[in-house]
Write the structure tokens for this entry.
Amino acid sequence: MRVLRTVLLGFVVAAAAYLAVLAAHPAVRDGGPGWLRWFGRPASGETIAIVALAIIALCVIGFRSGTAGGKGSVSLTILLALTVMNCVLGLASYWNCHDAAHPVLITPLMWTAQLIKGGTSELQLNGQFCPDPIPVALDVARLSSLGVIFLGVASVAVALFRTQVDRVRAGAARSVTVVVGVDDDSRSMVKAVAETLEPNAQLVLLTENPDQPSAAESRRDGAAVLAADLDSPKMVEALPLWHKLDRLYLLDADASINLARLHTIGQARSARGVHRRVPLIVRIDDPWYAVAWRTQQFGGSDTRWAADAVGKYEVTAKRLLDEITGGRGITRVFVCGTSPLTLALCADLEQRRREHDFCVERADETLPVITLVAESADEYRDDHLHRQQRLGLPPGGDYIEAVGESPSMPVLARLVGEKSDTGSCAVIFVDVDPMFGVSIDPTIATRLAMRFPDVPVFAWNPMAAGAGGERPGLEKLRTFRLTMDLPSGQAHDAWERAAMLIHERYRTAVAGDSPARRPWAELDEFFRGSNRRQVRNALWLAEQIGGHSWADLDHGVTQAPQQPSADPLEQLQAMGFDRSAALAMARAEHEDWCRYYKKAGWRHGARRDDERKTNPNLTDWHTIETNPELLHAALTSLVATFSQLAELGYRSVPSWRRYRRVGVVTAEQRPEPWTWTSDSGHEMQAGPGDWRLEDADGSRWSVRDDIFRGTYEHVDGRSWRSTGFVMARPARPGETVDTLEGRAAAAVGAWIVRGERGEQWPVSAEEFRGRYEGAVE
């Protein structure tokens, strides 16, 4: 589009200049080449049509591609450009219209002014029409002047009725990207989202106050702003957006509000029968809460969302470490003070180390060590290491150090001075909040920068414009504020980042000049989408088919296999996937890959040809599974994806674990049907011959006769002892289960238990602890 816009602009400028010259000096056309003499001939309809269509096309392209500067500024630019062109064409057309009673310059100017006002009548000079014959330049200028007037009126109408226009834009769009709850911190994200919209997608901002400055700025970025009472579930559900939702961003500063709105929107999509998973970004500023929620959602247990979290502390930490590690040769970073930013800096550095080990191209890059300087530094370091352990990641104790002293000037002078090369260290003063730590003397950053002019110092300042700027005499002192503005070209979500890194490793490992091997920034959107699809589908496969979870932080993590030459089925088994699950996941991945490629116009062919869009693997699964070589390749690809995700820190563990039945119950078999009430309040139906069980706490439930006799042994009288094993996992929030007795909802903190015959039922946390004991490996 940029090339087309440049070509059209060049043609319009050249054509307007040529027509202006012909209008002032008609004889020029006769002296031109024969093949060009038709262009610009008086009353030439072809010339008028060509120039008019080129101008219209240029305006349309400029308007559609001008979201970065805002639709309003694009409209104004178009109006000014057309007005200038009309002035030039009109002045050239009337240039020769003058006599003794009509001054040479004044008359053309006055007649051109009438033209700009929309005048289309032919003007006379001493009873004679002038110009005569009418040049094509004047015809084009008349049409363009009318277009400017109509466009101006339309722009005013749009401005007056912009709310109604925004609703029409949102309703007419085939797909929408919805942003909910924008404030000053998250405003920059809206602009970044607008620049990465999919083709034919409309950005929609939902807000309670459409007149606030952030809404007006979002509208200039191309967003359709809709007013809605975001606290009213009925009003949110009534919006005609959720059936065509492409992406969702919940950016309110309060994470609980975002999650409540997510629940409401999820219900709205379910009510409309929409089950397609879409990317979701939820703003959660607390970095550890964000990690916990992200790992809980990462695999997509809820099939409606491919979820991720973003927060101002995580983004600020990323920006600071980007600047520090950007070729400065920094080997140590002193982080002064305690706040959520302290935790985010430690977590981001650990993720950078994983990505550093993952990417071959970064093998020579040196990452710094972080030294925490605060009275509670040891506590923060220990908490960080505990978090790493719960995530099943390497502890990273060698990269996070602690100095349990207040970051005073003498302490920092000693620590920085101990470095033989002070240019190899940097200092960050985190944000000050009484909720998280003790206030830091605001003058320390300046005094430290004066004493060590070669040490980069980053000082928090809530009024900073961004990364700050150089200061005469203190060139290494920078100020920063908390921000959600990621640098251009960086991913806003974890799956995009993982897809990018996996592609870069593939690009460096595979030889050839295929279009699929270009750097991510230059990669065709089809291949970018293919990488995203592979990552998202792998996350879904592990949970929905493999029976794994990405959120189990308390039972260790299955490590990725270390034998690249081993059989792929054995490698998947080492990850915790049995043979049937591995084959089912390989099949689902192959079929999803085929759907993606076929939708883009690819077809089966004897060899891969990117230009003709042919691929020999675009065939049905039966052909794949009956060919040992193709089946091995499909399973190996699945292993590679899971292994690469594990290297990047995204590891899954089996959701279901084995537990032993324990305890004695009182049981009675009843010949007639009967009902009982579950813990969630649902009425459950027991059939004739089912057993009525009651434990020591008074809880009652039913068990089918064949299952009861296989899982209980008689003690004496009406007492029976539980025997055998079950599989169990923690219930997901709001989960419901189809039991043998009916549908039951799991309470908060409940467990889902599965028997040997596949039957499932929810059990409260208290009952689970009493009826089942330790996992059996």
Notes: The mean pLDDT is 82. The longest strand covers residues 201-207. The longest helix spans residues 136-160. The radius of gyration is 34 Å.
